[in-house]
Amino acid sequence: MTLLDQIKQNAKKNKKRIVLPEGTSERTIKAADIILKEGIADLILLGNLQEIAELEKKFGLDLSKAEKIDPLNSPKKKLYIERLVELRKSKGLTPQQAEDLLNQDIYYGPMMIFMGDADGEVSGAEHTTADTVRPALQIVKTAPGISVVSGAMVVVTKKTELGHNGVFIFADVAITPNPTAQQLAEIAICSADTAKAIVGIEKPKVAMLSFSTKGSADHEFATKVIEATKIAKATRPDLDIDGELQSDAALIASVGQKKSPGSTVAGFANVLVFPDLQAGNIGYKLVERLGDAEAIGPILQGLGAPINDLSRGCSVSDIVNLVAITANQAAGK
To answer: What are 248-276's pLDDT values in tens digits?
Structure first.
């Protein structure tokens, strides 16, 4: 059984309500048909009900088990407007402005989650990352104790002797270009939680990566990683975190134990936290292309609820997979 098969099986065992804002997108409703048939999640499709029905008929789909809501004519719109005005009162949001926002599927989805009417959201087949993340930050905000949103990639390699049977979490690969030490610590914590919820790693071993190992270089870049490691350890003493570590020291036991003797992470890491977005994004793509690895994601971390972003070039299977991942995140909360 592949990792994605395991993720789907876990989703089926812990059925969650996932809202799909782009309910009139061809790829979205084709993915919805598969998700419903396989029992991966309970779905809520947003969009014009007639358009959804026409597309369902056109492509020979069965969306009868999905809840369908038109944000323009929702019976809960008045309640949602009241709560959104209350939520954004410090920003001076008026009822009319709140209604204008909630007429948009991309705002209505996060509001459903905030109101407890959905457990997670997958968007991005038609919307930009900014369009997906902005409403999420305004409505569900970041998780308690977390100030930064980051993107994690599940990287599945053929090196089964490394990581968690060859599986790793890489972060941040998508969102925050140059995190502070505090933000880097938060990314490490979120990445460990993602490893548990998505990959099923009971004891994540988190390596804070740098070009230096345990003081081998004296530079402000390494100092930031050292400080981030201290913050992460103090914040979550239950997690196994070590740094700063060079990548070979993080991955290879003989190297790790030579450079950081006695470390329970060095040489055994399965969560790799990169010092900045450039390193993380370059790193996972090199492993994917040169190492013939599979990269799954990115998975958004740090939000107060599971809300994930697709590439606008995504396939139907990408949507199915990300819904399964989002359901696992929701189950792990």
So the answer is: 999 999 999 999 999 999 999 999 999 99
Token pair, residue 16, equals 């969650």
Q: Could you list the beta-strand ranges (E) of the chain.
A: 17-20, 42-46, 67-69, 120-123, 150-156, 167-171, 205-209, 240-245, 271-273, 294-301, 307-309
Architecture of the CATH domain 3-141+305-332: 3-Layer(aba) Sandwich (3.40)
The CATH superfamily label for domain 150-296 reads Isocitrate/Isopropylmalate dehydrogenase-like (3.40.50.10750)
Helix (H, G, I), strand (E, B) or coil at 134: helix
Q: 153 with 296: CB under 8 angstroms?
A: yes
Q: Give residue-wise pLDDT tens across range 205-241.
A: 999 999 999 988 889 999 999 999 999 999 999 999 9
The alpha carbon of 286 is separated from its chain's Cα centroid by a whole number of angstroms, namely 21
DSSP assignment string, 15-50:
--EEEES-TT-HHHHHHHHHHHHHT--EEEEES-HH
What is the distance between the alpha carbons of residues 123 and 125, in angstroms, rounded to a whole number? 6
Q: Backbone phi, then psi, for 46, in 5-degree steps? A: -105, 140
What is the pTM (predicted TM-score) of this model?
0.90
